[in-house]
Amino acid sequence: MTSVPQPPELPSDLPPAVVAYIRALEATVAQLQATVAALQVTVADLQTRLNQNSSNSSKPPSSDGPQVKPAPPKSPSGKRRGGQSGHPKAERTVLPPDTVHTLKPDTCRGCACPLTGDDPNPSIHQVHEIPVVRPQVTEYRCHRLRCPHCGAVTTAPVPADAAPGYGPRVQAVAAMLTGSCRLGKRVVSQLFDDLFGLPIRPATVCKLQHTTAAALAPVAEAALAYTRGHPANVDETCWTQGRQRAWLWVAVSTSVVAFLIRATRGRSAFDDLRDGSAQVHTTDRYPVYTHLPVHRRQVCWAHLRRDFQAMIDRGNDGSPIGAALLACSDELFGHWFRVRDGTLARSTFARVYARAVRARFRTHLGHGGRCGCPKTGAVCRELLAVEPALWTFARVGGVEPTNNAAERALRHAVCWRKTSYGTDSERGSRFVERILTVLASCRRQGRNVLAFLTDAVTAHRTGAKPPTLIPVPAQQPPMMNPTFAGC
């Protein structure tokens, strides 16, 4: 510490002990000042964490407290409520009738004159009803016969496809109720009894899950291999297996979704999911993805927007940088929505609009890296290091600027985890990842989940070829567009 000059009003011949005491007090004051400065930094950091919400961090909206102001209401568009022009009309589905009643008016409602004839195009009013469902029971009477020569008793074997004691459709319904409807074993047992008149114990439901997982093993492996060969959105969320922390990973391609549960959130789990795929990966900025080349990675802009809002909310030297970056993001997405609507060509977007926004965005990042806010500076320098990965969507077809597809795919699993508290065993995890793969893929392809599960279980019992989630060549997504020189 630099010594403070002695004030002129103090005598110059102070005793050494007094001078030493004054120096000790000066050192104490300096130490206290350093402590206060450190506490101020800590308090500012805690205040920033306290002010985190769904708009400036990765916290879900459900965690927002009452002090968080909701988003301002949008200004009225002047249009009437309901479906707008161009919106697909939603009508009640007309099913093939089992019983037809023909209704004709007898007299005119205006003058009461008798009416005759037929209407070539009568209006149709259908009443849909669910019939009483009762189980179809097939009984095998296995005779036990004794050999008259050696005395051995031989019992006729049950056919292999009947050995489980329940048909393929029963097994498929049990898997769908637990995996798609997220119901517990006891609730599924009650539903089978109430809806179908079929008593099934909760332990039997669990056993049917395990056999379904075995039937879906080749289906899930083929789906995982397919996603590795296509651009995919990748994300992960926490899971519980037994009493240990695990992680549920997902890869979402255009038409196929693959799930995996692993005990780690590290590189090995990502390699199991993507296996060195040379396709584009759309991810957030979690460090496990930093090994990916920037030309094969798209960083999620939805996460970036929350980071920019966090810069603004800190209210320090980094706030103007956050506002400038957020303005660039708003301008970029305004043009991108036109690309998605088909009113702007992707080549024009990349060559003109994205190039202009990218130049300003890079300039703001450079200024942010040198600003007085350490956190804002760290984020800006990190983005500069992966800056080409922010613009992959502008030059590669089939790639979105956000990772929303993966987050939407995980939402069902997160809700399931909150009610089931994860899985108890390795076998349970295999069922979860495989049934989620089938559910998400069938939904994206518009296929009937129950019919697919029934076919998979039937093929597993009979040794036939299992159904596949892989689209036929005519339905495959288009190849990636060539790289544009504009971005």
From TrEMBL:
Which sequence ranges form a coiled-coil region, renumbered to this chain? 22-49
Q: Where is the signal peptide?
A: none
> Does Coiled coil show up as a keyword for this record?
yes
Sequence segments annotated as region (Disordered): 50-101
Q: Which InterPro entries does its entry note? A: DUF6444, Transposase-related, Transposase_IS66_central
The UniProt record lists the keyword Coiled coil:
yes
Q: Where is the composition biased (Low complexity)?
A: 50-62
Q: Which part of the chain is the Transposase IS66 central domain?
A: 189-429
Q: Which residues form the DUF6444 domain?
A: 24-92
Which controlled-vocabulary keywords does the entry list?
Answer: Coiled coil
Superkingdom, taxonomy of origin: Bacteria
Protein's recorded name:
IS66-like element ISGob3 family transposase
What organism does this protein naturally occur in? Answer: Gemmata obscuriglobus
